[in-house]
Specification:
Blueprint (H helix, E strand, L loop, with lengths): L2 H8 L12 E14 L2 E8 L2 E8 L6 H8 L7 E6 L11 E10 L7 E12 L4 H20 L3 E4 L9 E4 L9 H6 L1
Antiparallel strand pairs: 1-2, 1-4, 2-3, 5-6, 7-8
Amino acid sequence: MSLTKFKEKYSNLLPEVLSEVSLSLAGRVHAKCEFTRKLTFDVLSGEGDRIQTMADSAHYSSVEAFYKSNKHVEHGDIIGCLGHPAKTINGVIDGVYEMGRVFRNGQIDATHNPEFTTCELFMAYADYNDMVVMLECMLSGMVKSIHCSYKITYHADGLENPAMEIDFTPPFKRVKMIPELER
């Protein structure tokens, strides 16, 4: 089924899963987020439309089978999906992030400074590891989408000085906060 026909047919779906309906869709991966090792979200685009798919390891024979099936899917790939039409209830996914320009330095002064961008992320019931996975997904995904690679070249001291390479390949290195601050 085309993405356009899918959206036409299921756009008014109530928050439910139509488990009695199985269908296949194909499209180009526009965005990809590995929410956890057991759950991924892809945004597929095609024919001028986009839909979000969710792959859950519960629908595979094992977590390893799920991982092997999904680990090679990259932004820009054309993939096929088999599943059930569904719409989630608002609030089912309790994690959000927001990126925005910062024009003021808070309480420091009232000057406008448009070259800063902030990133805030929140997740209900999340611990440190959940937050790191969400941040890794967001940052590495943005870098990969923009540069077609997890690695970027950065000229910290100007173009005339040597560049440094920054690697955003997940997983990121974990450090203990207090010992690192005391270093």
